[in-house]
């Protein structure tokens, strides 16, 4: 799910959408009156977490290249891929 969204919108907008979705889904869990509603809220919170997990490595890689941190020699970011 995160790959096509990131390709279409970019890393920054995908992260911002993830943050907005996280805020919206936390309300479901926070104001839940019963255990099933709480569990549904927790399930919905998994979608924004998935966006963050998928977008973070690419964002770090591109940020490092822009700052000149990522050179051609092997580094920790390259070994994690």
Task: Furnish the topology, listing elements before pairings.
Blueprint: H1 2-9, H2 11-30, H3 35-67, H4 76-80
Helix pairs in contact: 1-2, 2-3
Explain the overall architecture.
The protein is mostly helical and 81 residues long. The protein has one domain. Helices cover 81% and strands 0% of the residues. It has 4 helices and no strands. The model has no long low-confidence stretch (mean pLDDT 77).
Structure summary:
The protein is mainly α and 81 residues long. It contains four helices and no strands.
The termini sit apart by 19 Å
How much helical structure, as a percent, in the residues?
over 70%
Helix run count: 4
- Give the rounded overall mean pLDDT: 77
Form type? elongated
> Cα-atom Rg, whole angstroms?
16 Å
Q: Give the amount of beta strand, in percent.
A: under 5%
Features:
0% strand; mainly alpha; elongated; 81 residues
